[in-house]
Each structure stands twice: as C-alpha cells, then as structure tokens.
Amino acid sequence: MEKNDGFMRALKCRECGREYPLTANHVCEFDFGPLEVVYDYDRIGKALTRQAIESRPKGMWRYRELLPIAGDPTVGLQVGFTPLVKANRLAKRLGIRELWVKNDTVNYPSLSFKDRVVSVALSRAKELGFTTVACASTGNLANSVAANAASVGLRAFVFIPSDLEQGKIVNSLVYGASVIGIRGHYDEVNRLCAEIAGKFGWAFVNVNMRPYYAEGSKSMGYEIVEQLDWTIPPHTVVCMASGSLLTKIQKSYQEFIRLGLAPEASFKIHGAQATGCSPISTAQKAGLDFFKPVKPNTIAKSLAIGTPADGFYALKVMKETGGSAEDVTDDEIRDGIRLLAECEGIFAETAGGVTVGVAKKLIAAGKIPANDSAVLCITGNGLKTLDAVTGQVGQPREIKPSLREFEALVENEEKAFKG
Question: Is 69 helix (H, G, I), strand (E, B) or coil?
Fold first, then answer.
C-alpha cells in the first residue's frame, strides 16, 4: 500500500475477495468480478462523527473519509447537499402518509446526481496522474464529465449514442469536450470505450476508474440520512440504469449504521425502470436472481442500458432489504413528470418520471404501505429532456392585448373548472 491512501485500504473483488492496489483497475484478473474500494472503518470511526460532519461546508465532501480519495478533493467542491423536500401534495396524490423527494435536479454544476460520481472519479484521476478523462454515457454523465473536467483544466472525451436528446448533446459540447456520437445503443458505446481505455490509457470514469466513481453515489444516501435527522427512511425508491445507484444507497445506509452515525433500522430499497428497458425489474418480478439483456426502446434514455453492469447486485439488494421493482410505460413516465411538477414544482427528466410512476404503482399495490414513509430519489433536471414532454403538456393560449379578451378567457376557464 502506498504511504498515503487516505482512509482506503485496497480494491477488492466482489466475487472472490482478492485484493488489489489502489490503481486505475476495475476488474479481477482471476474471475473478472468487479472491484470495489475497501475502507479502514476503525480509523474512519474515530474521525467521522456527527459533530465533525455538521461543522463542515454543506456539500458531498463533508463525508470525505467515506469517499475514495487519498488527499483533499480537487474537483466538485460545491457538489451535493441538494434539498430533501417534504412532498405533502404529492404524498396525498400517491396515497401515502409521508413522502420526501431527494432533489438532485438542482445538483451543481450539471443538474444531475452524476456530478457526485464524477467529482470523486476526477479527483482520484488527478491523484493517479491522469490528464485526459473520458466516459461512455446516456447523457447526464457526459454533461458532468464535460463540465467538471472544464472546471479544472482536464482534457475530456465523451462517447454517447448519436440519437440522444439534443439538450444533453448541447450540454456536453458547450464545455469544450470532444463529444463522439456512436451510431449504436449504450451497450455498444460502452464496449468501444473499454477498448479505447485499454489502448489510450485515459481515465474512463465508468470503466477503469469505476471502483472510485461508483462510490460517489453513496453521498446521496448520506445526505438523506442526515437531512432526516440521522434516521434511515423505511422505503427508498431509486431509478435503475446500471443498477449502481441503488446498490450504493444501501451501502451508505449500512456504513452509517456501522459507524454509529445512524441507529440500526430495517429499510427497503425499491428499484424503478422504464418498461422499454426493464431487465432488472422484469427479473425481480419473476423472482429471478439474474437478468436477461434487452434492446432499449424508451423515452427514458438516461436509463436505457440493456445490459446493466450492476444488475445482479441490484437484484441482490432488493432481495436482502425486502424491496420490490416495477416499471412504467412512456405515457406513465410523462404522467410522473407532470405529477411531480404540478404537485411540488420540481421539473424532473424522464428518469424522475420513472421513479414517481413506479412509486405510485408500489403504493397502490401495498408494497409501500400507505401508512408509511418513503423517499424518492430524483436524479436529473427536466430541462435536459424537453423532447419527451414537448407537445404533451398543452400549449399557451394566445389573445390580443385586450382586457376584454382576457376576461373572456378567464370566464371560460372557470366554467371548465366547475364542470
């Protein structure tokens, strides 16, 4: 082990348990299992107390000892600590006693939870001496890598399916990154990036840097617990693309219990997918511990991963916690977007519509009891996926600059409202 690895101890295979040095490596050479960061929890427990956390700036790095960097963070110092909104109006519409929305639609700087994982991956990449960073992305990750790399002067390449929403393409190009559109779906993009990472030796945040990158998702869970006055919610609903975020929410809750930062509690973590790309939810509903890859066909392009890298582990988490999975159609996704916007004033992208739509189904089915409390993880901003709702939310009414015309419009609206 190097002299200074912060609170990290090693990389460890999630399958066979073999340990590796803390380098840019993501897969076990013996059984090809994924590698994960192992921490020195005894040391962390002495340094990380509630008082220490509360004394620090309100961002994800207030939990720095549990994030995989050796020194001080150098990227994304203002990322995280997004609002946890008590969603009373949405709770009433969905038929549940208490509902909270973890609102990463306003995460800094690129308006999605991906800023959490990217700030960790790029901080670690700089520690390991990389000057060029890259990613395979369905959109939000590309935006975040481009923005965060620009903020610290790193060269960035982002690889995306060429049919992504225009908003997400522009939101990568504007930062000066090299944006490469691939004529294929995400899994094909990802395979190409694995080859490029080996050939060029760049820091691919979700390939060779994946063990560090994935840990950034835990910060969302830490914040939820702290914002709920250091308690773990009984139900958490998380959208699934690769399935990684869901697994890291569980890990964050477990770590806080282990360190005495939150009391022991039982909790269920539920997964949400789009029907047009639902390999994990389909497997969970069938009672399987493995999934079958699918070809994506959904407006929720940020979740359109047909061969999810952490799908097996997401299924395992739902089984361990007693959680459930469900999926929703494109129309139900749009309904979920509108419901969250109309009830709480939060405009989420399509993935948020998936989370709300699935929560509605799980509550209706009794899998989240109506007298219980739940947190919905909303991961990205609706301004990124305007294409999905354009023409679906009505049109402005046009009138002449005339008070009489406006009075007539209001009168007609009141008649319609009264039925």
Answer: coil
